Amino acid sequence: MKKYLLDMHTHTVASGHAYNTINEMAHAAARAGLELLGITEHSRSMPGTCHEFYFQNLKSACRNVEGVELCLGVELNIISYNGDVDMEESLLREMDVVIASIHNNIGYISGSEAENTNAIVEAIKNPLINIIGHPDDSRIPLNYEEIVAASGEYGTLLEINNSSLTPGSFRTDPEKNDIKILELCRQYHVPVIIGSDAHAEDKVGSHQYAMKLIEQTGFPEELLMNYYPERLKQYINKYNMR
Fold this sequence. Notes:
Layout: E1 6-7, H1 22-31, E2 36-42, H2 52-56, E3 64-65, E4 68-77, H3 89-92, E5 98-101, H4 113-125, E6 131-133, H5 144-154, E7 157-161, H6 162-165, H7 174-188, E8 192-195, H8 208-217, H9 229-232
Parallel strand pairs: 1-2, 2-4, 4-5, 5-6, 6-7, 7-8
Antiparallel strand pairs: 3-4
């Protein structure tokens, strides 16, 4: 099995409900043998998160700690059935990496399957969005055929979220939904990415529950971007917009 080399979905104290600093998360990534670390603070609809000034000032932060390359960006909230998000385009263009997620009842009220699917598909079409975070919660029903097709067409990665799969997760049916995503992505040869969604340093690079599903479904190694930092970069704003 190839070595897991990157984790693009983590949070620091700036997000308001996480527990470590950028440097502490980066050192944890180095200990885990990662080459690339994404730190994606929650955007403004999330209670307790950082002010927009934080995102405006990310240009001043270091991008390499102990040999780990950092991508500093945002986890957006999808806030409408049209795929609108809670950061203006001018600031979004400054982010190294952009994840967009539905957080139920945080700027978004779950609708019908068609409405929720349209919200995700329209976010996928946004060229400034790189990854769709944890599309795995049955409280927000989705048509996975449509979402996987859009992911393949527009080059926005779908995330298999290790935190969703961790015992005690508050999301509903993530294992069932992630298996469906993986089966469809394998069928249509669409790549995915595992994200730890770490909110503390000991979870950086955590992927054991996601990898269990990767193995269970026979998902091909070549479609799992965590093994391929250079291939992953073609999906990330930092490497394609400057």
